[in-house]
């Protein structure tokens, strides 16, 4: 079959194609399962309930990763919800193939209630919250008491709250979101960001004092090695 990449570009653009669901016996899904196992070992003391996903720059596969991990965690009978806090370039609605309306921003403005905010995907059996109406008041939203209260309510009902956030070097949003999170998973696409940029991104995150509990290497050529994902605590 020649060289193969984890989360090929075509799959990255087709966000609602979850390889973990569509190809459960594939090597990619096997590596995703290893990420889940390592996450559960890292979380043996239940310290990491709210987990932020970020990357150095755009296009490194974090949204696709969240969708797949959310699906696999649900398959392991975990209560999971995915929260889109990438308010500038929301994509979680694409994973679940719905319009980006009546979401978080609408909830914060009291235009919808919690029952309308939290949606369930019948196809993937995962709960999720989309961004909703676009706004320029992003810093106000991310620092709002109402958002913090919402996340605390989600803690009462879910084992894992997976947060999609912007790349760390693009804007300061990821650093604000880190303060709402228990831990961070950093997505690094093979041959995408420079080593210097990755180091800078990680250095910026460490200032928030929220631990980086793992890194995930995506879009790696199959040729030569079988390890597509690298996870550590």
Features:
233 residues, alpha/beta, 11 helices, disordered C terminus
Describe it.
With 233 residues, the chain is an alpha/beta fold. Helix content is 38%, strand content 16%. It has eleven helices and seven strands. The chain is globular and about 45 Å long.
Number of separate strands: 7
Helical amount among residues, as a percent range? 25-40%
Q: Compute the gyration radius: what is it?
A: 17 Å
How many helix segments? 11
Alpha-carbon distance between the termini? 34 Å
Mean pLDDT, to the nearest integer, reads 88
Structural category is alpha/beta
User: Biggest sheet: strands, sense, closure?
Assistant: 7 strands, mixed
Low-confidence stretches: 1-12, 223-233
Identify the strand order in the major beta sheet: 3-4-2-5-1-6-7
Order of helices and strands: HHHEHEHHHEEHHEHEHE
Topology:
Blueprint lengths: L8 H5 L5 H4 L4 H16 L7 E6 L6 H14 L4 E5 L7 H4 L8 H5 L5 H4 L1 E3 L4 E4 L8 H5 L2 H13 L2 E5 L8 H6 L4 E7 L5 H12 L5 E7 L15
Parallel strand pairs: 1-5, 1-6, 2-4, 2-5, 6-7
Antiparallel strand pairs: 3-4
Outline of the structure:
This protein has helices at residues 9-13, 19-22, 27-42, 62-75, 92-95, 104-108, 114-117, 138-142, 145-157, 173-178, 195-206; strands at 50-55, 80-84, 119-121, 126-129, 160-164, 183-189, 212-218.
């Amino acid at each position: 079959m020649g060289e193969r990449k984890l989360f090929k570009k075509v799959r990255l653009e087709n966000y609602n194609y979850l390889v973990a669901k569509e190809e459960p016996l594939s090597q990619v899904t096997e590596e995703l399962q290893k990420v889940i196992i390592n996450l559960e070992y890292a979380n043996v003391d239940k310290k990491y309930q709210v987990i932020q996903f970020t990357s150095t720059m755009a296009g490194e596969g974090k949204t696709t990763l969240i969708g797949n991990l959310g699906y696999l965690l649900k398959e392991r009978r975990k209560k999971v919800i995915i929260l889109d806090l990438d308010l500038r370039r929301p994509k979680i609605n694409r994973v679940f193939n719905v319009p980006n309306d009546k979401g978080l921003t609408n909830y914060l403005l009291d235009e919808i209630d919690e029952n309308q905010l939290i949606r369930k995907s019948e196809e993937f059996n995962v709960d999720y919250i989309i961004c909703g109406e676009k706004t320029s008041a992003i810093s106000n939203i991310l620092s709002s008491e109402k958002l913090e209260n919402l996340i605390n309510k989600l803690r009462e009902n879910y084992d894992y709250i997976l947060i999609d956030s912007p790349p760390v070097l693009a804007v300061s949003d990821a650093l604000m979101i880190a303060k709402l999170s228990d831990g961070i998973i950093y997505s690094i696409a093979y041959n995408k960001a420079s080593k210097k940029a990755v180091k800078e991104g990680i250095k910026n995150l460490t200032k928030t004092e929220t631990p980086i509990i793992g890194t995930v290497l995506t879009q790696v050529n199959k040729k030569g090695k079988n390890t597509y994902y690298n996870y550590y605590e």
